[in-house]
Amino acid sequence: MKTNDIEKLIIIGSGPAGWTAAIYAARANLNPLVFAGRPKTVPTTILPGGQLMLTTEVENYPGFPHGVTGPIMMSYFEQQAVRFGTRIVTDSGQTPDVSDPDDGHNYSYHDCKNVDLSRRPFIVVGEDDKEYRAHSVIIATGATANWLGLRNEQRLATSGGGVSACAVCDGALPIFRDKPLGVVGGGDSAVEEATYLTKFASKVYMIHRRDELRASKIMAERAKSNHKIEFAWNKTVVDVLGDNMITGVRLKDTVTGKESELPLGGLFMAIGHTPATAFLDGQLELDAKGYIKLKDPYRSTTSVEAVFAAGDCVDSVYRQAVTAAGMGCKAALDAERWLGAQGIE
Ligand code: NAP
Q: Would 18 disulfide with which of 13, 23, 54, 247, CB 3.0-4.6 Å?
C-alpha cells in the first residue's frame, strides 16, 4: 500500500539523535514523520527511545543538574518533538498524546522494515508493508549490544537467569546483590560496567580474552585500583552454567587452551555494539563495523544525496546522549538546507 503524499522528511529512530532531529525539523515546518520503532524483548531489549531506555540515572546531560532517568529524558525529548508538530507512525495512524511522561512511549509505534534509496522520492517501508515516500530521510537508528552467541547465554538471558548485556539496567536487581559477578570484555564499557557493579557485588571478575585492556588508560587504572575488581586474563567464556539461574561460567585459556570453571551469580556482556544499519541493505556506504560513513565528518551527509545520518549508527567513539543529540540537530539543519535548495519548503 502506498501513501499519497510525499513527506518532506522521514526520520528513522527515536533516541536522542532522532528526537532532536524531529524537534529541529518540526520547528522548521518540515512536518517530520518518525518511525520510532517497536520494543524488542530480551536478549537485546530495545525500547523506542534507544539505549537510554535501558539507562537508570543520566547525570551528564546538561540541563539536568540533579540527573534524570533515561526513559523520562527520552519522554521529554519526544514531548518536545510532538509539541512542534512531529508525527509518529503508529498502529492507529494517529500520533499519541505524549504529554504524560508516564504514558509517553506508546508501544504501538512502528518499525521501519526497509528503504529504497535508489531514487527520489525515497521509499520507506513500515512493518505493515505500507510504503511512505520522502524527499529526504534521516537515519538515527542507533546501535545494540553484542552477545557471545552461546546457547546457554541466550537461554539464561531470555529467562531472567542472571545474564545481561546492560549492567546499568540490571545490575541493581536483588538477584545480583552480594554475589560474585562477571563482566566480559576489556574496553571502556567493560570497565564502566564492572566499576558500576562493584556497588552491589561481593566481587567483580573482568573476563578478557587478552592480557591487557583495550580501555583508555584512565579507565583501566580505575579498574585496576578497585579492590573489588579481579581480572581473568586470557580467558574466553565457552559456556554459561546453571539451570534456571546462572551458577558460573566455563572459561578457556586463550594461551594454554586449558578449561576451568568460575562460580558466578551474574554475567554481563560488554563486548561492543552493532549499529542498527542492516535494514539499509548496503544502500549507504558503511565502515568495516557497519557504522554509516559520513561524506564530511563535520556534517551529516551520507553517500546518498538527501539521506542524512546521526547518532550511534554513525558514531562508534563517543556514543553519548549529548553527542547524538548534537548530531540529530546537524542532520535536521542539513535536511532543511537541502530541501530549501530544492525549493521544497
Ligand atoms: P570496544 O572498545 O570495542 O571493546 C569491546 C571489548 O570486547 C574489547 O575488549 C574486545 O576484546 C572484547 N570483545 C569483542 N568481541 C568479543 C568476543 N566475541 N569475545 C570476547 N571478547 C570480545 O567497545 P566498548 O567498550 O563498548 O567501547 C566502544 C567505544 O565507546 C570506545 O571508543 C570507547 O572508548 C567508548 N566508550 C567510552 C566510555 C567512557 O569514556 N566513559 C565508556 C564506554 C564506551 P579485544 O580488546 O581483544 O578486541
A: 13
